[in-house]
Write a structure and sequence with these properties.
4 strands; Membrane protein; DUF3301; elongated; alpha+beta
């Protein structure tokens, strides 16, 4: 039962982190005026890191995709450590993007 309890706690925290990452990705795309593709994030990595207080915790990396004009596709990435955003790479305001053809 202890193992099942630990597995359930891990799953709940992973799901909460994914929901937080979805909200952050969606908000970033909205703020940049780009289209958030697939309406979801994908787990891309998991590692053990020390938090700011020195305790061990999980650092989860997620990726998401977005489009400036509907015909292109770009990958964004965000990293959460204990539910807190520590790294982000993704869309910028569409007006600042230079299209080279």
């Amino acid at each position: 039962m202890i193992i099942a309890g630990c597995a359930l706690a891990y799953w709940e925290r992973a799901r909460a982190a994914a929901e937080r990452a979805e909200a952050l990705g969606r908000d970033a795309c909205s703020a940049a005026g780009v289209q958030w593709l697939d309406q979801t994030v994908h787990a891309a990595g998991l590692r053990i890191q020390r938090n700011d207080d020195g305790k061990l915790g999980f650092e989860r990396t997620f990726r998401f995709e977005y489009s400036y004009d509907g015909s292109d596709r770009h990958v964004g990435r965000l990293v959460l450590r204990s539910g807190r955003l520590v790294s982000f790479s993704g869309p910028v305001r569409a007006a600042n993007v230079v299209q080279l053809h």
